[in-house]
Design goal:
Length: 305
C-alpha cells in the first residue's frame, strides 16, 4: 500500500505548496520513522520505498506489529478508519512560483499517520533539525513573511457586517424612491415640452396666415415661413412685421387688346416703341395695324428694307 506524503499541486494548511523535487530526503531515508500525530514518543513503524512519482512524494508504511498500539493503528489504517498522513518538514527556502508561494527547498524530518489532518495535505513545520520545536502558523508567517497573524473578533465583524447590510438596504430604498420621483418629473417635463411645441406651432400658423392676409407674403411660401418660424420665432416675427404689403397687381392686357381697343385707348407708335419688343410683336400679330401706325408716325408707307 502506497501513501501520498506530499502533492506538489496542493496548498497546505500554512498557505503554501511544497515542491517535492526540492525536498531533501537524505536524512529521512537514514531514519524513516513513522510517528503517530507527530509525537516523537509514539513511533509506530517506518516508511519504505520512498520515491517521487508524478509530482508526488509516496512511501509504503511498515507498521511495528509487535507494538500493540502500532498494530491497532495499522488495523485502523488497513480498514480505512484512519486515512490521514502528514509530513514534518524544515523549510529552508520559499519563492513565488506562478503566483503561488512555494517551498522550493526543504528537509523532510518525519512523516506521521494522523487521525485528523489539518487539510488534505496536512503539514507540521519544525524550527530546526532537532525536531524540538514545531512552528505555529503565526510563528511561521513571522519567520518567512515578516508578518504576524492576529486573532480577529468574528462576532464584532458580524455586527459590522449586519450594520453595513442595513445601511445598504436603506440606501437602496432611498434610491428607489428618488428614481420614482425622477420618473414622475421626467414625465411632467415631457408633457410640458409637448404642450409648448403645440403652442408654438399654432402661434406660428397664426403669424404666417396674418402675413398672407396682409399681402406681405404669397400663399405658396407658407410652409417655408412656418418652418423658419418654428426654428426662429422672434426673427420671423421681426421679418414679417418689416415687410410692406404688396402693391395691387395691374390687370394684364394683351397686345391685341391694346391694339384693338377703342381709338382713344390705342397706343401710338411712340408708346409702343417705349415698350421693349412691343413693335416687333405688333408686326407679327397685326401687320396691318403696324403699317397704319408706321404711316402715322413717318407719313409714308411701310417698305421692307
Amino acid at each position: 500500500m502506497k501513501i501520498v506524503l506530499c502533492d506538489s499541486s496542493t496548498v497546505n494548511s500554512y498557505g503554501f505548496r511544497t515542491d517535492v523535487s526540492g525536498i531533501n530526503l537524505e536524512r529521512f531515508k537514514k531514519n524513516p520513522v513513522m510517528l503517530y500525530n507527530h509525537n516523537p514518543l509514539q513511533v509506530i513503524g517506518k516508511w519504505d520505498s520512498i520515491a517521487v512519482e508524478n509530482e508526488q512524494l509516496v512511501a509504503e508504511p511498515v507498521f511495528d506489529m509487535n507494538d500493540p498500539f502500532a498494530a491497532e493503528i495499522a488495523r485502523k489504517v488497513n480498514d480505512g478508519f484512519i486515512k490521514g498522513c502528514s509530513m514534518g518538514l524544515m523549510i529552508t527556502q520559499i519563492t513565488k512560483t506562478k503566483g503561488i508561494d512555494t517551498a522550493t527547498e526543504s528537509l523532510l524530518l518525519e512523516a506521521s499517520i494522523v487521525s485528523i489532518p489539518a487539510d488534505e495535505n496536512a503539514l507540521v513545520v519544525y524550527a530546526d533539525e532537532k525536531q524540538e520545536k514545531k512552528l505555529s502558523i503565526n510563528e511561521f508567517n513571522k519567520l518567512f513573511y515578516n508578518m504576524e497573524t492576529k486573532d480577529i473578533d468574528t462576532s464584532q465583524l458580524q455586527v459590522e457586517l449586519s450594520e453595513k447590510n442595513s445601511q445598504i438596504k436603506t440606501l437602496q430604498a432611498e434610491l428607489t424612491a428618488k428614481t420614482d420621483i425622477i420618473s414622475d418629473l421626467t414625465a411632467q417635463v415631457n408633457e410640458l415640452q409637448k404642450d409648448l411645441a403645440e403652442r408654438e406651432y399654432h402661434e406660428g400658423v397664426a403669424c404666417v396666415d396674418k402675413a398672407i392676409a396682409d399681402g406681405k407674403i404669397p400663399e405658396n411660401v407658407k410652409n417655408i415661413c412656418l418652418a423658419f418660424y418654428l426654428s426662429n420665432p422672434e426673427d420671423t416675427k421681426t421679418l414679417l412685421e418689416a415687410l410692406n404689403p404688396a402693391a395691387p397687381a395691374t390687370p394684364s392686357i394683351s397686345l391685341s387688346q391694346m391694339v384693338n381697343a377703342p381709338k382713344t385707348e390705342k397706343l401710338t407708335w411712340d408708346e409702343l416703341d417705349h415698350k421693349p419688343g412691343a413693335l416687333q410683336k405688333l408686326k407679327a400679330e397685326n401687320f396691318e395695324e403696324f403699317k397704319r401706325l408706321y404711316r402715322e408716325k413717318f407719313n409714308r408707307e411701310w417698305e421692307r428694307f
